[in-house]
Amino acid sequence: MEEVVDIVVDFEDYFPSMMERYGAEGLVTELCNGFRLLMDGERGLITFESLKTKSMVLGLSDLKDEEIACMLSEGDLDGDGALNQAEFCILMFRLSPGLLMYAQ
């Protein structure tokens, strides 16, 4: 039997305030900057290895491998095990319930 791992991450949604401050175009620019910060420079994708390494640099060294894998799988729409820029941006919007008010 496969073990099920429940992972809870405490997340504060800053995207609505960023939308107010920068507008839609500015928010997308910041998301793209975040993607570039986390991506593997050679592959142009956020990989398990790049996310693990960069999360440590950002002070998130307590993330477990299972949590990192879960983050990637949550946004990996094409099943390649990594996130491209579009998948990353889609995931960030999906994780921000506060941005729903701007979609209306």
From TrEMBL:
Residues 63-98 form the EF-hand domain. Keywords: Calcium. PROSITE patterns: EF_HAND_1, EF_HAND_2. Coiled coil: none annotated. The keyword Ribosomal protein does not apply. The keyword Calcium applies. GO terms for molecular function: calcium ion binding. It holds the Pfam family EF-hand_8. It comes from the Eukaryota. This is Ca2+-dependent modulator of ICR1. It comes from Hibiscus trionum.
